[in-house]
Specification:
571 residues; alpha+beta; 11% strand
Amino acid sequence: MNRLYTSSTAIGLALMIGGTPAFADMEAARAFLDEQIERSTLSRADQEAEMQWFVDAAEPFQGMSINVVSETIATHEYESQVLAPAFTAITGIEVTHDLIGEGDVVERLQVQMQTGENVYDAYVNDSDLIGTHWRYQQARSLTDWMAGEGADVTSPTLNLDDFIGLQFTTGPDGDLYQLPSQQFANLYWFRYDWFNDPEIQAEFRDEYGYDLGVPVNWAAYEDIAEFFTGREIDGQTVYGNMDYGKKDPSLGWRFTDAWMSMAGMGDVGEPNGLPVDEWGVRVNEASQPTGSCVSRGGATNSPAAVYAIEKYKYWLENFTPPAAAGMTFSEAGPVPAQGNIAQQMFMYTTFVPSLVQEGLPIMNEDGTPKWRLAPSPHGVYWEEGMKVGYQDVGSWTILDSTPDDRAKAAWLYAQFVTSQTVDVEKSHYGLTFIRESTIQHESFTERAPRLGGLVEFYRSPDRVRWSPTGTNIPDYPRLAQLWWQNIGDASSGAKTAQEALDALCEQQEEVLERLERAGVQGELGPKLNEPQDPEYWLSQPGAPKPKLENEDEEPITVGYDELVSRWQQGG
């Protein structure tokens, strides 16, 4: 199962009659269910009932062609190559699902928001833009849409309560703006086989004085990175860290995706720090951004932020394959599969499908992995109650500038690719869970031993502590591009960490000032604090935090099996 489409499938034949889409009917739906849906949380009768609803609801839109877009990851490949043709065959709505880079998705979205011209009928864009959508009010409120104009095309079996990420796609006003289509966390990845080798364990204890295990803090991570780097294991030179450093948009995500909160830069608060979040942006009680630099109460250039960048650079330069400094996110992700990486601070779990392929040096002959996933360690400025990591929630978003009929057709497609009928199969292909019922499905209980802890994590109470960018960020497209450019200067050595972060926070405040002057976000937009001596803010409770006299800490590790046992016991 989970095979991608070929033109010889029954659905493919049902799809085309004389080179044009066939009329929607249940024959194509039954062929789709027979060929592609082996596993589902719904019975076959309920699957057919759900498909019949799509057939009926789509009748007014038969013959329409719509265009949607998402970034290129395995889950969206499945949607584009398997589910889109099936949807066309079943509904008579011809859908083109484009796959492009994540940065390009944001750019197209930005163009449509700025011009009002309909570039795409729906976007799968990260919930990191929730602050943008809530403030600009250019994305349809799905709450209003489902109750009003879109009621006739909202599935009675959508089952919103089953989605695990709606808190990340809901604005402070309580409205849902985006519907999750894929979700993945960044977690600590390590070679379980090496960490449990008695000789390696004994040597580590002799050298460092404590047990080799999953690092709880960055001090332990650094010791483990140092210990493994340069060793010969299985005929290869091993490295104790994997990362990337190319000046590229993906370098920005590397840091805005909770790296700074993992270091301890922001405030206590889940899903995001308040009043200062993981971007270092402060908001007031009205959720208006008030500053990014320490002089305005922000933390983007604070001592904790400098510590976060300097640790990243030190590990990249000393414990990482030399080629990594010139790699992007997509180039670096599959590298651990080559078998010479001992650990990675955070592995985006969207790469798990590429890490469980048969025959890889990181896989056992019985199909189980030699590696495991665990919570990422945190830095010396981190304190209990702070955000612990990032979770990507790629979500369907329909802008107000999309004509109503096209929006309705696109909403039908968004519901189809997230429906309970298809979600288990889609999740087996891409391993990006969005529904609780799918996570608990027996097929994932059976497959869990082959996924290195991914299923155990998503079934654990810890899952909710990993979260996307929150509502402190008023214009994600404009602010995100500043990160990779400035962090790139620090990564390359063109600037010190402090110089790069000073420039970054100043540029972020220039964007906030422009938004404030323009007034385009009304009372929700920025209202910057007047600059003060940084010492004023550093002396206040919470973020920004003053520099610690000693940024070293006692290393702490925990046994992986003990960690999983805690999850299974509920905490």
